[in-house]
Sequence to fold (142 residues):
Amino acid sequence: MGNKERFVRWQGVLRDQLTFLNNLLLTISFGVLGYTFSLLRDPDFHIFCGQKYFFTVGLILVFLSVVFGFYTAFNRLQDFRTTAKKIRLEIQGVDDLNDIKESIKLYGKVTWVLFYTQLITTVLGVINISIAICWVYKEKLF
Fold:
C-alpha cells in the first residue's frame, strides 16, 4: 500500500473519530444540562453562595460547549461542501482553485479550534457542576 493510500485511509479514520468525539461531547453536554435542570426542579435541592457560583459557571460552560459543538459540526459541513466544490471544479478542468484551497485550510483550522474549545468547556463545566453537587450533598457523600 502506497503512502498516498495510507494517508487517505488515516484521514478517514481521523474524520470519523472527530465526528464521534464531537457527537459524544454533545451527548454528554445535553445529558448534564438535563440532569442539572432536573435538579433545579427538585424542592430538596438548595444551593447557597459558593455552590451557586460553581453551579452557574458550570451551567454556562456546558451550554457554551453545546454551542461550540453545533458550530463545530456546521463548520465541518461547510468544509465538506467546499471540498466537494473543489473536486467538482477540478473534474471540470478549472485550474485556479487557490481561493477554495485557502478556504478549505481555514475551515480545517477553525474546526480544530472549535473542537478543542468544545472539549475544554465541557470538561470545565462538568467539573464545576460536580463541585457544586458534591458541596450540596457533602453530608450524604462523605
Observations:
- The chain is about 90% helix and 0% strand.
- The chain has one domain: 3-141.
